[in-house]
Amino acid sequence: xxxxxxxxxxxxxxxxxxxxxxxxxxxxxxxxxxxxxxxxxxxxxxxxxxxxxxxxxxxxxxxxxxxxxxxxxxxxxxxxxxxxxxxxxxxxxxxxxxxxxxxxxxxxxxxxxxxxxxxxxxxxxxxxxxxxxxxxxxxxxxxxxxxxxxxxxxxx
Length: 156
Hints:
Radius of gyration: 21 Å
CATH superfamily: CBS-domain
Oligomer: single chain
């Protein structure tokens, strides 16, 4: 079974806990991120997500310009190593109702992040590959030339 390193987004975008919610939200928006890892001294200390922005800032009437990430982040998030099996990561995300899961090295330094969108892409890609293989095998059984699939076929 594949490990998470095959589908994680490496080199995650990070912020420090002293940054304001406004600055971090802008960074997330510019990069198209649903979550950002909070790092102190090269170690993950938290995670801040769109959900945190909604539930811990906006709904509480806090000012994003003056509120520090340290006051609204999810501290000490559950994380996994890059060798963790995909099935185990899916279980964690499902059981904990997470949308993002940090990937760290042996020193708690963030080396990646995985999202539910990444899992969906992985599943869809695998399904497409399975369907393509099934169609190919069916066509071969029906007498198709197997070389037609290489390079999209060739007719003179």
